[in-house]
Design goal:
Elements lengths: L8 H31 L3 H13 L15 H30 L5 H39 L11 H18 L2 H10 L5 H6 L1 H15 L4 H24 L17
Length: about 260
C-alpha cells in the first residue's frame, strides 16, 4: 500500500529555518528583558545623566517639569528599555549573523561579519557624538534665545522624545560608510559613479540634516558635515575591498553550524 509523505524536503527545510528563526528571536528578546530588569533600578539615575546636557544649560534654580501624571514613571521606564536594547544590540546582531551565515559563501562571510561589527560600533559612536558634542551646543543655543521673562522648564517626556530622535538620526548617519561599501560591493554603483555625484551627495546631506534635526543651523551642520565625511570614509574603504566576482569554486555553500 503506497505511503503518502505530507512533507517534501523543501517544506521540511523551511520549517527548520522558521523554528531556528523563532529560537534566535526569543533568545534576543530574553536578553533584552534580562538587561532591562537589571537596569530598571537605576532608571532615574540614567535619566538624570541623559538630561545633564540640558540641566547644565538651564538658569540657576530652573528645573525640568512633568506635565503628565504618568511621566515620572513612564519616561525613565522607556529610557531603561531603550538602553537595554542598545546594550543587547551586539548579541542581537550576533543572532542575526548566526542565522544568515550558513547561507553565505566564504568570501561573503569574510566581508559581512566585519560590516556587522562596524555597524554596531559606528552606531554607538553616533550616539556619543550627539551626546557630547551636539547636545551641549544645540541646547545651549535654545536656552539662550528664550525671550526675557520666559523660564525654560522642559517637560521630561518632551525632552526624552527630542534626544531619542537626535540619537536615532546621528546613529543612522554614522552608518553611511556601511551603506556606501555595501552599495559598491553589490555592484549597484561604482566608486567612480559616487565620486562623480559627490556635489549632489553633499547637498543631499544638508537637506537630510535640515529634515532630521531642529530648525537651527548648528544641529543641521553638525549632522550634514559628519555625513559627508563618513561618505568619504566609505569610498576609501570600498577602494580597499577587492571587487566582487561570481563564485566559481564555491558552488556549494558551506555549512558553518
Amino acid at each position: 500500500m503506497p505511503t503518502n509523505h505530507s512533507d517534501s524536503p523543501g517544506e521540511s527545510s523551511l520549517i527548520q529555518h522558521l523554528i531556528e528563526l523563532r529560537s534566535r528571536l526569543l533568545r534576543s528578546i530574553a536578553v533584552v528583558l534580562l538587561v532591562f530588569i537589571c537596569l530598571y533600578p537605576f532608571a532615574n539615575d540614567m535619566y538624570t545623566l541623559l538630561a545633564q546636557p540640558l540641566l547644565s544649560q538651564l538658569p540657576e534654580n530652573a528645573t525640568m517639569i512633568a506635565t503628565d501624571v504618568t511621566s515620572p514613571f513612564m519616561a525613565p521606564l522607556k529610557l531603561s528599555l531603550l538602553v537595554a536594547l542598545l546594550i543587547a544590540l551586539p548579541y542581537v546582531f550576533y543572532q542575526v549573523w548566526a542565522f544568515v551565515a550558513p547561507g553565505l559563501y566564504r568570501h561573503e562571510r569574510r566581508l559581512i561579519f566585519p560590516l556587522i561589527v562596524s555597524s554596531v560600533v559606528l552606531f554607538y559612536l553616533g550616539l556619543l557624538f550627539a551626546y557630547y558634542l551636539v547636545f551641549p551646543m544645540v541646547l545651549g543655543f535654545f536656552t539662550s534665545i528664550a525671550p526675557e521673562g520666559v523660564s525654560v522648564m522642559t517637560d521630561i517626556t518632551s525632552y526624552l522624545d527630542f534626544v531619542l530622535k537626535m540619537f536615532l538620526a546621528f546613529g543612522l548617519v554614522f552608518e553611511v560608510p556601511i551603506v556606501t561599501v555595501v552599495l559598491i560591493y553589490s555592484g549597484l554603483v561604482t566608486v567612480q559613479q559616487l565620486v562623480d555625484k559627490r556635489p549632489y551627495i553633499i547637498v543631499g546631506a544638508f537637506v537630510i540634516g535640515m529634515l532630521l534635526t531642529p530648525p537651527d543651523v548648528f544641529s543641521q551642520t553638525m549632522l550634514a558635515v559628519p555625513m559627508w565625511l563618513l561618505f568619504e570614509l566609505g569610498l576609501l574603504v570600498a577602494r580597499l575591498i577587492p571587487a566582487r566576482t561570481k563564485p566559481e569554486a564555491e558552488t556549494v555553500k558551506e555549512d558553518s553550524r
